[in-house]
Automatic annotation (TrEMBL):
Keywords: Metal-binding, Oxidoreductase, Zinc
Pfam families: ADH_N, ADH_zinc_N
Domain Enoyl reductase (ER), residue spans: 10-343
The family this protein is said to belong to: Belongs to the zinc-containing alcohol dehydrogenase family.
Gene Ontology terms for molecular function: oxidoreductase activity; zinc ion binding
Cytoplasm found in the keyword field: no
Names of required cofactors: Zn(2+)
The protein's name in its UniProt record: Enoyl reductase (ER) domain-containing protein
Length: 345
């Protein structure tokens, strides 16, 4: 089969790899229809994820058709169209039982990290019963890849962790695909103010189209003053970081209101400062997590019912043979006005 392989720092190549087979009774083999590139894949290329070694098939997001099933998988049938969750979970270990399957002792973030991932013509998915979701016929396959990771990450690590409330104020720093998913899921909780922050005016325009009440370009000299003015000088109840660099987390600490919450979604590869000397008496909470993807069934129901529109997130798609171009487009997303980049197989 053809697969997109991480061959070294900054390099992805399309290579021939053996088609995966069932290894455990709980496995499924999926014929991939569409995969997508995540910001985390770029962090792998940068060397920020030491567990991902050269030779790895990248990707943890995708939609496909069930090709083969292990003997213990009874909830699916060969030929089913399924969403591949970014997290695999056994459902039985201590972490799954505690409700944090992202740290499953035999699963978690396996695909495209510890084992070959979804950016290939076929992928073996462990713990298939809890790690695959039947796709309703009304949801387009390519658009659905955004529900593999971006939407559950935005909802769980962003909106729920930041305790977005009806009538509250929200600022989201980072208007990439996960930031946009955070915006769309935050709207479900009817805050009175959602402000999106980014350095890309095109993405900020898209954020306004998707329902942001206001946007601020953080490269503006008076960006902080604009943000504080929008919050009435009080700061924001919910501050969500969706970039993963020191400067954006520092901005979060400046913007959080007394009694507010900071939710870190971004992947940080370098040291970040925490200014306790300014924050210790403000009664705030800071939450950081890896997505558990336990909200995926809920999100699919919202999409199926028309309450949540996922159609705007996948903006570009390429064939498997155009993998280098796909990665180049995602790496220069602002130049191409790209959000989610899909790869078709």
């Amino acid at each position: 089969m053809k697969a997109l392989v991480y061959t070294g720092p900054g390099t992805v190549e399309v290579l021939e790899r053996p088609k995966p087979r069932i290894q455990d009774p709980t496995d499924a083999v999926i014929r991939v229809l569409h995969a997508s590139i995540c910001g985390t894949d770029l962090h792998i290329l940068k060397g920020d994820v030491p567990s991902a070694k050269p030779g790895l098939v990248l990707g943890h997001e995708g939609v496909g058709i069930v090709e083969d099933l292990g003997s213990a998988v009874h909830s699916l049938e060969i030929g089913d169209r399924v969403l591949i969750s970014c997290m695999t979970s056994c459902g039985a270990c201590r972490y799954c039982q505690k409700g944090i399957p992202s740290h499953c002792q035999t699963g978690g973030w396996v695909l495209g990290n510890h084992a070959d991932g979804t950016q290939a013509e076929y992928v073996r998915v462990p713990h298939a019963t809890l790690s695959l979701h039947l796709l309703p016929t009304s949801i387009p396959s390519r658009a659905a890849v955004a529900v593999s990771d971006a939407f559950p990450t935005g909802l769980e690590c962003g909106v729920l962790s930041a305790d977005v409330q009806p009538g509250g104020s929200v600022v989201i720093i980072g208007a990439g695909p996960v930031g946009m998913a955070t915006l769309l899921t935050a709207r479900l909780y009817t805050p009175s103010l959602i402000v999106m922050v980014d350095i890309d005016d095109a993405r900020l325009a898209t954020a306004r189209d998707l329902g942001a009440h206001a946007t601020v370009n953080s490269s503006s000299p008076d960006a902080r003053q604009q943000l504080m003015t929008l919050s009435g000088g009080l700061g924001f109840d919910s501050v969500i970081e969706v970039v993963g660099i020191s400067a954006t987390f520092a901005l979060c600490q400046e913007l959080v209101a007394i009694g507010g919450r900071i939710a870190n979604v971004g992947v940080h590869g370098t040291k970040v400062d925490l200014h306790l000397e300014r924050l210790w008496d403000r009664n705030i909470s800071i939450h950081m997590s890896l997505v558990n993807a336990t909200t995926t069934p809920r999100l699919l129901r919202l999409v199926e019912s028309g309450v949540l529109d996922i159609g705007s997130l996948v903006t570009h798609h390429f064939s498997c043979n155009e993998a280098s171009k796909a990665y180049e487009t995602f790496q220069a997303a602002s130049q191409h006005q790209a959000l989610k980049v899909a790869i078709d197989f």
